[in-house]
Amino acid sequence: MNQQPEKVILGIDPGTNVLGYGVIRTFGKNRVELVVMGIIELSKYSDHYLKLKAIYERIQQLVTEYLPDEVAIESPFFGKNVQSMLKLGRAQGVAMAAALSRSVPIFEYAPRKIKMAITGQGNASKEQVASMLKSILKMDELTPSKLDATDGLAAAVCHFFQQKVGMSSGKSGGWNEFIKNNPGRVM
After folding, report:
1. CA 55 to CA 16: how far, in whole Å?
2. Is-catalytic flag, 151?
3. Which of 6, 69, 115, 181 is the most buried (most CB within 10 A)?
4. Is residue 2 domain-resident?
């Protein structure tokens, strides 16, 4: 069975010290395989703007190398530290800009939605997510150093699952689709 991939999805878990990513290929609605996963180590940069530059450049390299059809990215969650949230939002924005500069559509997913899609629990641990991904993708091993990468990979697999059931959202125009599908809820 030498089937051509239907879609390539790049998943990104933005971070200011470590950014995780994963690339998958999909075959129809039932098969998905891992292409690559990894991290962008950012803690070596003392300047936040150098971190942003590194994110932008590496995401562009990934897009050029793997030619994703879509990017799934974890959206920042609300935290108590406003400065951390601001920095995380910048990291996410730079990653998005890098993909958009190559005209790749972006889909955002909340952390709980990603965990729910992968494990069935919105508050699953990184280890639980990694274990389920290992099973879903039929991987032999998953080393602990790859746990940041599995969060990016989880975003890609979540996007695959959401499309599979026709529930994908996050693309600009999402409100238009919501309004079309829910006319009784619009005032």
Report:
1. 9
2. no
3. 115
4. no
Q: What is the residue range of 100's domain?
A: 7-185
Q: Is residue 160 part of a domain?
A: yes
Which among 70, 74, 108, 151 is annotated as catalytic? 74
Q: Domain tally for the chain?
A: 1
Q: What is the CATH number of the domain that holds 40?
A: 3.30.420.10
CB atoms within 10 A of CB 117: 23
- Asked about 69 being catalytic, the answer comes back as no
Active site annotation includes 148: yes
Global pTM exceeds 0.90 = no
Catalytic residue among 47, 65, 127, 148: 148
Q: Express each pLDDT in 27-51 by its tens digit.
A: 988 899 999 999 999 999 999 999 9
Strand partners for 45: none
Q: Which two tokens stand for residue 47?
A: 């300047």
Q: Which residue of the set 13, 70, 108, 151 is catalytic?
A: 13
